[in-house]
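Regression test case RT-17, inverse folding.

Input:
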């Protein structure tokens, strides 16, 4: 596989989920939910391109098992830093909503080996073709993503302005 830069994939607006790592149970479930809506995103003129840490074997496993969009690696977390998607505080692991996010995904995804920093917050951005961030969501705890339906709605709203 040749290295791919996110910049190369910006021929159309891009929804970019920033996962903690590709083995994270809530992250995997979220990526699978986006896959179910992938054709709707494509019809709206938007591509999905996920970004995660350095565990390429976890990304390959997801792509081999039903994720049909790019899963890029950002081992230095440069995009996370540029978008100010930070690590959570350790005590946030005690929040009931953190546990709920894990428990609600247990039937949809299997936990993989933790790679990268275990407290990396997730996030999601919609990046336009001119490299402008049109939407940014910074997760407040592990597994904290906007609903896929809300992301699709936002993507549709943004692409309507382009037409």
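Golden output:
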């Amino acid at each position: 596989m040749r290295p791919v830069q996110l910049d190369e994939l910006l021929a159309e607006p891009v929804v970019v989920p920033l996962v903690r790592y590709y083995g994270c149970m809530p992250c995997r479930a979220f990526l699978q939910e986006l896959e179910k809506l992938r054709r709707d995103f494509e019809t709206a003129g938007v591509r999905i391109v996920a970004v995660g840490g350095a565990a390429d074997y976890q990304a390959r496993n997801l792509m081999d098992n039903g994720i049909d969009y790019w899963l890029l690696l950002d081992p230095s977390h440069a995009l996370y830093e540029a978008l100010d998607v930070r690590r959570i505080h350790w005590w946030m692991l005690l929040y009931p909503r953190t546990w709920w996010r894990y428990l609600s995904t247990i039937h949809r995804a299997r936990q993989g080996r933790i790679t990268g920093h275990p407290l990396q917050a997730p996030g999601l951005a919609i990046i336009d073709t001119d490299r402008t961030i049109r939407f940014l969501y910074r997760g407040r705890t592990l597994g904290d993503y906007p609903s896929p339906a809300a992301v699709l709605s936002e993507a549709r709203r943004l692409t309507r302005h382009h037409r």
